[in-house]
């Protein structure tokens, strides 16, 4: 065998069998998993973006929800916040919503929801906005939220007649909490929304410019009912009863009672109303107070428990009242008959009226030795 033939055979084995190379061959076993294999730029599947690049990060992206979906979600979270009162939990749930660029909706929806609730919930809303500022929403987004609210006032007033006043209070409180600058009012005035918006801006301006305005705005919504001093509540109840007797406006009296938000203290209202009847000793007061108590009872604003507790408190101090009003027992019995006929008291209540013989004692004359005798 010639030397040239031997060289040819060795190259054949090296290249085509041992080397797994050459045209039309598959390559070495396992070569398909070789990550370091050279990349053929002429390969039709070649993609330059697939080159090793640590700056390329793949992640799943969910499109931002629609305005309507976000408003519904925010409303749900705000109503839940009214139940638990935890701003940290509220912030966490709001941060989990799919909000990308519409953060102003938090301010907008929060205030719009609060418009239809009581002062205590409005106070909670102001506290929430203050806590979310710098944490979840920025000053620009808060301003944008109020911008939309002011523009929507013609629609908001349909459900909340005093919406301009309430929005003005919210705006002033937000400024007092350093979430917005005072100059924002002038900025909003230049936009000429509507007369209703101007009312809101004037209200905010006036609140901020009264003496110690920034300090007073901490209590712009009033203190929560359960946190108010007892003497304050008693004074408020006496005032609304006096106003009711003067005006005869039953609905206004009911509204004022509801605004106090102290259902656990309604026995005081019953007590004060009955005492007013005894001290007035006139038919007009009896009829008016009976009408008020019946309306509150029928609307389940005052429960039977609170009603009975109020009357029981009067019975307990009837002897003391009789010192200043000798006919107190007679007036009370007449009023009780009126209430029983009205249907919100049972006749058994008459058995609770104390008698002077069982509860009062007096000193007899010196001739009796100063002994205590039953009256």
Automatic annotation (TrEMBL):
<dbReference type="GO" id="GO:0045892">
    <property type="term" value="P:negative regulation of DNA-templated transcription"/>
</dbReference>
<feature type="domain" description="MI">
    <location>
        <begin position="232"/>
        <end position="355"/>
    </location>
</feature>
<keyword id="KW-0472">Membrane</keyword>
<dbReference type="GO" id="GO:0005634">
    <property type="term" value="C:nucleus"/>
</dbReference>
<dbReference type="InterPro" id="IPR016024">
    <property type="entry name" value="ARM-type_fold"/>
</dbReference>
<keyword id="KW-0677">Repeat</keyword>
<keyword id="KW-0963">Cytoplasm</keyword>
<feature type="domain" description="MI">
    <location>
        <begin position="69"/>
        <end position="190"/>
    </location>
</feature>
<protein>
    <recommendedName>
        <fullName>Programmed cell death protein 4</fullName>
    </recommendedName>
</protein>
<feature type="transmembrane region" description="Helical">
    <location>
        <begin position="6"/>
        <end position="26"/>
    </location>
</feature>
<keyword id="KW-0539">Nucleus</keyword>
<keyword id="KW-0812">Transmembrane</keyword>
<comment type="similarity">
    <text>Belongs to the PDCD4 family.</text>
</comment>
<dbReference type="Pfam" id="PF02847">
    <property type="entry name" value="MA3"/>
</dbReference>
<dbReference type="InterPro" id="IPR003891">
    <property type="entry name" value="Initiation_fac_eIF4g_MI"/>
</dbReference>
<keyword id="KW-1133">Transmembrane helix</keyword>
<dbReference type="InterPro" id="IPR039778">
    <property type="entry name" value="PDCD4"/>
</dbReference>
<dbReference type="GO" id="GO:0005829">
    <property type="term" value="C:cytosol"/>
</dbReference>
